[in-house]
Design goal:
Layout (H helix, E strand, L loop, with lengths): L1 H4 L3 E4 L11 H12 L4 E4 L5 H4 L6 H12 L36
Parallel strand pairs: 1-2
Length: about 110
């Protein structure tokens, strides 16, 4: 637990990519609780803020975790197409390169 609670900055990437199971919800809550107002934490997720509490499987535990996470938080929500899989540019075939200055020879 010290590995996750003592760093000045903890980054948790893709929270909610898979459901939390077993003791994971309690462990995550404990990490959040111990870091609360002591150290910086960055979370990334493809889920909305409203969906994150559901990951804990217990409404009370989820609410307590989210209260601590969102207090003093800066929430950035990115809206738009994925950079990993951008939509095809207008007038081009699906799968074509949509970067400016690059010709699509397909």
């Amino acid at each position: 637990m010290l590995r996750f609670t003592t760093p000045k900055l903890l980054i948790v990437d893709d929270l909610g990519l898979r459901p939390l199971s077993g003791d994971e919800p309690l462990d995550l809550y404990e990490i959040i609780r111990q870091r609360y107002e002591r150290a910086a934490t960055i979370l990334t997720s493809n889920r909305s803020v409203e969906e994150l509490a559901q990951l804990f499987g217990d409404p009370l535990l989820g609410s307590a975790a989210m209260d601590r996470l969102l207090h003093h938080a800066h929430v950035l929500e990115l809206v738009g197409d994925s950079y990993r899989n951008p939509p095809p540019a207008r007038g081009r075939k699906k799968g074509g390169n949509s970067m400016k200055g690059v010709r699509d020879e397909s």
